[in-house]
Amino acid sequence: MGRKRRQNREIRVQAAANPDDDGVLGARLRVGDEEAFAELVSKYHGSLLRLALSFVSERATADEVVQETWLGVIRGLSAFEGRSSLKTWIFRILANRARTRGRREARSIPFSSLKDPQPESHYEPEVDPSRFDARGMWAEPPPRWTNAPPEDLLAQRQTMDLIQRAIAELPENQRAVITLHDVEDVAPEEICNILEISETNRRVLLHRARSRIRRTLEEHLRKK
Q1: Which of 21, 34, 139, 209 is an S-S bond match for 174, by CB 3.0 to 4.6 Å?
Q2: pLDDT in tens, 127-164
Q3: 3-state DSSP of the chain
């Protein structure tokens, strides 16, 4: 009993020093800290919902998938060995459950069934590499809206709505990759782990998704 108290005390000290650390959150969960679970839900619920919508078409179904994921986290926590980050583990549970529900909707193709990507010469029109930094993120993010005039704010909101619609219309595999990479800022190696795809496949899927969105934006701007 004394050993368990010391363990809990050590975890609380770690939590105070590293409140956002997923490893500490996982340790707190394993000793039954209910506040830790509430923090975890608050931290990742929105991200899980966005990823679920990459696989299923209805918001209600996506909500159900996320709830099933949290139940899976609770039930599987004792078996979590920390071979991946807590975030990756949770997202992978979500991806597996959402993929199953997506197949029931006849919208999903197993990632494992995807053939090797086509060679570089068959890529869709390329996005200028200078637009991205070393991690593959946008090198020049859009400016803050705070001081923009109302007409600029409206135009930016319309552009964001257009991008969201364009992402929703992507093939499932591209939609999931770009959601994780560009929307949720998940590291490339974690995306491969979550979706069970190769690094080459991830790179090609991201490239194709960005190319489609770029073309959509350019077509929109030409109409103005």
Answers
A1: 209
A2: 555 555 656 555 565 444 445 555 554 566 777 788 88
A3: CHHHHHHHHHHHHHHHHCCCCHHHHHHHHHCCCHHHHHHHHHHHHHHHHHHHCCCCCCHHHHHHHHHHHHHHHHHHHHHCCCCCCHHHHHHHHHHHHHHHHHHHCCCCCCHHHCCCCCCHHHCCCCCCHHHECCCCCECCCCCCCCCCCHHHHHHHHHHHHHHHHHHHCCCHHHHHHHHHHHHCCCCHHHHHHHHCCCHHHHHHHHHHHHHHHHHHHHHHHHHC
